[in-house]
Amino acid sequence: MRNRNLIGTGVAIVTPFNKLGEVDTNALTKLIKHLHKGKVEYIVVMGTTGESVTLSQSEKQLVIETVIKANANKIPLVLGLGGNNTAEVVKALKASDLKPFEAILSVAPYYNKPNQQGYYEHYKSISEATKKSIILYNIPGRTGSNITWETQIKIAKDFKNIAATKEASGNIEQMMKILKHKPKDFMVLSGDDNLTLPLIACGGLGVISVVANAFPLQMSELVRKALSGDFKGAQNLHYKLLDFTDQLFADGNPGGIKQALKQLSICESMVRLPLCEPKTEVKTKIASLLKLI
Question: In this structure, what CATH number is given to the domain that contains residue 176?
């Protein structure tokens, strides 16, 4: 594999805010310790779930420093660094201290809706800007367009430091096409918690998870069992988490997972505008389902 440290369960962590809406470093430290106890393989900071687009530069630095300190080199860290301005992403990569990070998670450009050649050239520029491992992140539901399996395969073949794709298209057929045609050492990771088990059954190597913020041990065990071929054991955990995970996304992410983390006394449920907390019925379902896990 191009980077074996990316196999297994990565967690796209939330950014906790206190009741005043400020970054809550104590809660963030508590979350990192919770993930250590849950035996996850790595932590992803500054991703979509971390509400990175609503953090100031100084807040982003505070979050990164807090995570590095709390993690204390126990497990690998991945930094979310992407955008729809290729030149600015390249500039940020070159200006950032990437030494503490195992890899970069870089989301597909959003809003501009580039064609497939545009996606290829974007990731070519990112690949050439750093020697770090890069995880391509395809999430059409947020970006507005899809990086096709053919384009992802071309990127994987041409740029060796692009080590993996986080596939969140929700299209299992597309995922299977990538798995069938990819270079042997290129990794396919699930970007959807509830598709992790079928993706691993087809040859995927893990997940970058949201639900693992709340239930790291259950999700990481699911992945380990599936990777070892214990699909019956993995199925039991998959179906235990299935309905709960659905509700986490029923009225917006990370509003749902923050409700669960509040129930677990890890952090407040505050999110930043334009996000709002989930509807009362969703909150009630999350609280009810949480008790069953």
Answer: 3.20.20.70
